[in-house]
Design brief:
This protein is mainly α and 195 residues long. The protein has nine helices and no strands. Helix 2 packs antiparallel against helix 3, helix 2 runs antiparallel to helix 4 and helix 2 runs parallel beside helix 5. The longest helix has 28 residues. The chain is globular and about 45 Å long. The N and C termini lie close together (5 Å).
Length: 195
């Protein structure tokens, strides 16, 4: 599995979208490295949490458009925390939860499929159901991380019951959208190295 992920990672970009996704990845890595020396540790930690997703989208061989959307979405989600957009723009939190959970659910679907956790049924509703459940699980996990950060690291993290439930609803909606798209289109490149 590691060998095939490495093969997908070292595949040269073949389109403008591939180049853009790789550029966003490079910027994300550079910003995280710079933030280690220039920002408070909590901001560095938040930004660094985006790196696994931006690298996994390349390593899994996601379609170039989905790869680019994943990189931008995840990095914007992390950056929005650092520059405090969640408090400044009403509703931005819900937009980010919807879109970020959607792209993370797409990654989860590919991982589950490659690991043969999802048995191909030929039914279009299977990815919709699996994606929605996976997205709700990701949303619940994220809300637990937020609570943990608020409880044990800093009270600057905004955590309320209404915010938590709203975030999970938005995340579930994003996952549902990802599932509907996955039921109609391939999430991976035709030329990817299968895991």
């Amino acid at each position: 599995m590691i060998g095939t992920m490495y093969a997908n990672l070292k595949r040269p970009p073949r389109s403008a979208t591939d180049w853009l996704a790789d550029a966003v990845r490079a910027v994300a890595i550079a910003v995280v490295i710079v933030s280690l020396f220039t920002l408070p540790f909590t901001d560095f930690a938040v930004l660094s949490m985006s790196l696994p997703a931006v690298m996994l989208s390349r390593m899994l061989g996601l379609r170039s458009g989905l790869d680019l959307v994943t990189c931008v979405t995840v990095f914007v989600a992390a950056g929005s925390n650092v520059i405090d957009l969640y408090r400044a723009w009403t509703g931005w939190d819900l937009v980010v939860h919807l879109s970020c959970t959607g792209v993370l659910t797409a990654i989860a679907l590919v991982l589950l499929d490659d690991a043969r956790v999802i048995v191909p049924t030929g039914l279009r509703r299977t990815p919709i159901v699996v994606a929605t459940v996976a997205g709700l699980a990701l949303s619940a996990f994220w809300e637990m991380v937020e609570w943990f950060g608020y409880r044990f690291i800093t009270d600057a993290i905004f955590v309320t019951y209404d915010d938590t439930i709203g975030d999970m609803i938005a995340g579930g909606a994003g996952a549902l959208i990802a599932g509907i798209l996955a039921s109609r289109f391939s999430l991976t490149r035709a030329d990817r190295t299968a895991l």
